[in-house]
């Protein structure tokens, strides 16, 4: 019996395509409105353009930047100045910079954000057959979350998260479809933007296993691995490029530069240390302050992740429900993603800072694609009560739009 396959052209492709387009158009329109109100136009030169400068240096035959830029976070190693962030965004910008398009980062960030919303809808539609609710879910994890703050412009810190979100959510989508090679490659690209995305390989493997098991129920895990082993080759090539670049710059295949930032070299505890966890972990739940009768949201090192990204409220609520009355598969999937989520959260709180100046809790947004996949997996099985997700969507959009306008 042939497995029915959802696609934009089959069998309800026209309505699927309409909702898919709606996700992209709505996101593009919202970003353009926010850019118009904050003068953060995607076609304008970006002030914090580390990845553009790095691509220029590579084209000039240098691995370092050739000089110091005091307004950027640069690694200092052997008397030279290097971009201190994982390199993949510069990979994307390289051909455009070679053509002389030195402000391409803003356009890349804009396109990435729109694609992120489109793939969020496509992922949701794989589990949620009601297209309206699939669209609502996609907006909940994008426009209604702290992701919105990172999507407005292409500043070096934000474009990496923007790209990581889009690459991860699209990787998860292709894993659901059983396209291992594409999924692994996109995941490897996401790791080259935000290294902690590496832990979500477990979610990808689960989704691939589920897809292959649906097609060939009698196939064992070992047989699946043997049949699809070549799918890891593109991802391995991407990973080797990172390691070669790291070794050429810093003498270590695992060092991309952040440990050589002056702010981390000045302290004995370095970039990561368990001593940071106690204070930083509290920032995941830090509530706004009351000052002169006004509610004040902290603008450095993050505040309550449930306020910044209400999609987490939905995830935790559905997790609790699935643990009580869900199937074995649902409990396994939800428990696994929840474990990965807290491993990720503890890891980021071991970092010296929680993202510096920003609104919300932007480090947490890196976990949203896998949380979203797990949420859609469960929502797709339970029709009752779905509409309640409109509440966190409305609250999340209102707060994050407000924060973007205030911050920029």
Any overview of this molecule?
By secondary structure, this protein is mostly helical. Helix content is 59%, strand content 3%. It is built from 18 helices and four strands. The chain starts with 12 loop residues before the first helix and ends with a helix. Keywords: Membrane, Transmembrane, Transmembrane helix.
Q: Tags for this entry?
A:
single chain, 408 residues, mainly alpha, two-stranded antiparallel ribbon
Brief rundown of the structure:
The protein is mainly alpha-helical and 408 residues long.
The number of helices is 18
Spatial extent as radius of gyration: 21 Å
The order of strands across the largest sheet is 1-2
Alpha-carbon distance between the termini?
A: 55 Å
| pLDDT < 50 stretches | 1-7
Quaternary structure state of the chains depicted: single chain
Number of strands: 4
Averaged pLDDT: 93
State the shape: globular
Assign the structural class, choosing from mainly alpha, mainly beta, alpha/beta, alpha+beta, or little secondary structure. Answer: mainly alpha
Helical fraction equals 55-70%
The fraction of residues in strands falls at: under 5%
The succession of helices and strands, N to C, reads HHEEHHHHHHHHHHHEEHHHHH
Keywords: Membrane, Transmembrane, Transmembrane helix
């Amino acid at each position: 019996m042939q497995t029915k396959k959802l696609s934009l052209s089959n069998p309800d492709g026209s309505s699927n395509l309409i909702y898919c387009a709606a996700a992209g158009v709505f996101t593009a329109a919202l970003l353009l409105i926010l850019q118009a109100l904050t003068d953060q136009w995607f076609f304008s030169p970006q002030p914090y353009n580390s990845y553009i400068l790095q691509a220029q240096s590579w084209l000039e035959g240098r691995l370092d930047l050739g000089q110091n830029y005091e307004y950027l976070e640069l690694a200092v190693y052997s008397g030279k100045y290097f971009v201190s962030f994982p390199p993949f965004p510069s990979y994307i910008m390289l051909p455009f910079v070679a053509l002389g398009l030195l402000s391409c980062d803003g356009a890349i960030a804009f396109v990435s954000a729109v694609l992120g919303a489109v793939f969020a809808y496509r992922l949701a539609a794989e589990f949620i057959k009601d297209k309206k609710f699939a669209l609502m879910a996609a907006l909940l994890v994008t426009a209604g979350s702290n992701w919105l703050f990172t999507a407005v412009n292409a500043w070096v810190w934000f474009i990496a998260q923007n790209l990581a979100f889009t690459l991860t959510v699209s990787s998860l989508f292709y894993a659901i479809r059983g396209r291992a090679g594409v999924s692994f490659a996109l995941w490897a690209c996401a790791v080259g933007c935000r290294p902690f995305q590496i832990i979500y390989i477990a979610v990808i493997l689960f989704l691939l296993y589920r897809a292959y098991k649906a097609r060939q129920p009698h196939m064992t895990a070992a047989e699946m691995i043997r049949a699809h082993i070549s799918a890891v080759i593109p991802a391995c090539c991407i990973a080797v490029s990172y390691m070669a670049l790291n070794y050429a710059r810093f003498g270590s295949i695992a060092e991309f530069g952040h440990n050589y930032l002056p702010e981390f070299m000045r302290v004995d505890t370095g970039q990561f240390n368990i001593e940071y966890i106690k204070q930083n972990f509290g920032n995941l739940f830090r509530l706004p302050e009351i000052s002169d009768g006004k509610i004040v949201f902290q603008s450095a090192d993050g505040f309550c992740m449930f306020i910044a990204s209400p999609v987490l409220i939905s995830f935790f609520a559905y997790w609790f429900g699935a643990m009580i009355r869900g199937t074995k598969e649902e409990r396994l999937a939800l428990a696994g993603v929840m474990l990965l989520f807290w491993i990720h959260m503890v890891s980021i709180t071991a970092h010296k800072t929680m993202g510096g100046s920003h609104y919300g809790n932007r480090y947490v947004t890196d976990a949203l694609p896998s949380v979203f996949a797990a949420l859609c997996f469960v929502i797709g099985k339970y029709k009752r009560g779905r509409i309640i997700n409109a509440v966190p969507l409305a609250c999340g959009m209102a707060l994050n739009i407000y924060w973007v306008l205030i911050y920029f």
